[in-house]
């Protein structure tokens, strides 16, 4: 995948998964089932200044995202994964349609992203506990919730979903590493360590990333508030 910095990242692949996330052999579109547990489209009507209006929306899960910094290595810990929505968006922008996708012309690698460790809020647990579980499952670091600090709460997808996301910060060490990470069930996630210089290049002017805004915002927060030499 194209990254603005062309960085040479240290990648830790979860030892349980022996599959390539780019090994996608077939892609097609289909109708969204009404019982989808993740996305529910609907139309909202409202009257504003006496004029009836409407807006098409998506109900999606709220989520958490975690900025992870390994103090033993002085590396930021991110995750790499194939995102169908990114793949679809790139092709739709290039072709104006998603019909008859040529996997050689548009290899799955273009849909691979670099992100913060994150996950949806779909359990009857506190948000910080869900964040702790995501850190273990995706990145392999087992830390107590007391070491996970809330950074900020904001809304994502304000034009389509308005879902809430809470961002956290957690410092880890090599001693906290319990597993290789990589996700659960059929997830295929790679754990990526970025040097501070590599991460800085992702947020420099003119950078082009496949990363979501929350990741880039998290990196900027880190450099402003927690990076070595940052002002308190």
From TrEMBL:
One of its GO terms (molecular function) is UDP-sugar diphosphatase activity. Its main location: cytoplasm. Its EC number is 3.6.1.45. It comes from the Eukaryota. The keyword Hydrolase applies. Keywords: Cytoplasm, Hydrolase, Magnesium. Its cofactor is Mg(2+). It is found in: Cytoplasm. This is Uridine diphosphate glucose pyrophosphatase NUDT14. Hydrolyzes UDP-glucose to glucose 1-phosphate and UMP and ADP-ribose to ribose 5-phosphate and AMP. The physiological substrate is probably UDP-glucose. Poor activity on other substrates such as ADP-glucose, CDP-glucose, GDP-glucose and GDP-mannose. InterPro entries: NDP_pyrophosphatase (IPR004385), NUDIX_hydrolase-like_dom_sf (IPR015797), NUDIX_hydrolase_dom (IPR000086). GO terms for cellular component: cytoplasm.
């Amino acid at each position: 995948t194209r990254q603005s910095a062309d960085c040479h990242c240290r990648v830790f692949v979860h030892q349980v998964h022996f599959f390539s996330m780019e090994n996608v052999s077939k892609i097609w579109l289909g109708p969204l089932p009404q019982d989808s547990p993740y996305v529910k489209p609907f139309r909202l009507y409202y009257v504003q200044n006496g004029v009836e209006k409407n807006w098409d929306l998506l109900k999606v899960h709220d989520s958490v995202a975690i900025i992870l910094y390994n103090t033993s290595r002085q590396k930021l810990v991110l995750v790499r994964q194939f995102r169908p929505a990114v793949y679809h968006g790139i092709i739709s922008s290039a072709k104006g349609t998603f019909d008859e996708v040529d996997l050689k012309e548009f290899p799955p690698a273009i849909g691979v992203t670099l992100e913060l460790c994150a996950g949806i809020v779909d359990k009857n647990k506190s948000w910080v506990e869900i964040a702790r579980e995501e850190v273990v499952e995706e990145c392999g670091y087992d830390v107590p919730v007391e070491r996970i600090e809330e950074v900020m709460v904001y809304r994502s997808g304000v034009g389509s979903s308005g879902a809430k996301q809470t961002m956290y910060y957690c410092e880890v060490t090599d001693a906290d590493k319990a597993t290789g990470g990589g996700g659960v069930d059929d997830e295929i996630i790679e754990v990526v360590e970025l040097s501070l210089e590599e991460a800085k290049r992702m947020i420099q002017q003119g950078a082009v990333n496949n990363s979501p805004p929350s990741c880039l915002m998290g990196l900027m927060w880190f450099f402003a508030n927690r990076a070595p030499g940052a002002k308190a």
